[in-house]
Amino acid sequence: MILDLILNVxxxxxxxxxxxxxxxxxxxxxxxxxxxxTTLAADFPEKNIDVEHSIVDVMKVLGLDSSQRxxxxxxxxxxxxGPLDYSAKMNQWLRDKVIDAVATRTVDSLRAGS
Length: 114
Description:
This protein is mostly helical and 114 residues long. It is built from five helices and no strands. The longest helix has 17 residues, at 2-18.
């Protein structure tokens, strides 16, 4: 599942940024997830990155496949009920759901719904 991979990568980056030799940290707040992705974007070689609005850019800074196929699969995993048209609306919805998932580490509570 793509979402599981995203969650693991977020938590890996958080752990690595804190103290790699320390025990794994507990759950991350939404604010911590937002700050982490913003920090990763600042260090990303590509400078036109918009992690505040774009799931494509969030996936890029995490080093993950951001293709339409990957985003379609992610939308299906999260229960997106709009058209799978890769629109700005779909893009923002996916981005927000991923940040919510990172913060809560739960997927079932995020499926279907806005």
